[in-house]
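Q: Sequence in, structure out?
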Amino acid sequence: MAPTKAPDSSRRSDRSRRAIHDAALALVGEVGYRRTTIEGIAARAGVGKQTIYRWWPSKAAVLMEAFLDLAGRAAEEAGPQSGDTAQGIPDTGDLTADLKLVLRATVDELNNPALEVPTRALTAEGIVDARLGAEFVSKLLEPQLALYVTRLRAAQEAGHLRADADPRIALELLIGPLMHRWLLRTLPLTHAYADAIVDYTLGGLTPRPRPEDPAAGLRSHRQWAETSGMG
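A: Exactly. Output:
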């Protein structure tokens, strides 16, 4: 008789973790964060609740890991041309094009039902649960925002962005409108909207003409004359 091969415990653990991740995300989308329980996750995943407690200290920890895993899988499926910030924001030398690429990818993620439902649930609960909100920001948001800061600082060094611009405020000008429209569902979230945000933001952040530039002075005088009725 051929020797019996021992079960691969690591492979079994990976399958169990994935089942738990999927169960947690499904439940939080169906019943909300507060009504999602460890017992419910265990039942949906087909594992004992002690298995979950052995790997995670809390429901929030399960959901955070599940969401990070989901986001990672979505990025892999989208491929390297998606503008995925997990690999850093592209730096082609064209700041406008690079930011549009990334914001379009963000629009696609926010419009993806698989990501939208758990993101909304965790975002909403994080507003009323300060501890969960802080964890959501530190583990999910800040690593992404730091990549924007890095790209914007590189643009400053290259002279493509005002030297006195605060990168943190600049990235909030880019991300804030997207999240506002997405959270409140005021209007459709589209690629065209993402492009407009970049254009509007950079229009106020690009270097200003120096006062000693004669051409700039002439343009300013002409604009003043036209608006004052003297042109």
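The radius of gyration is 24 Å.
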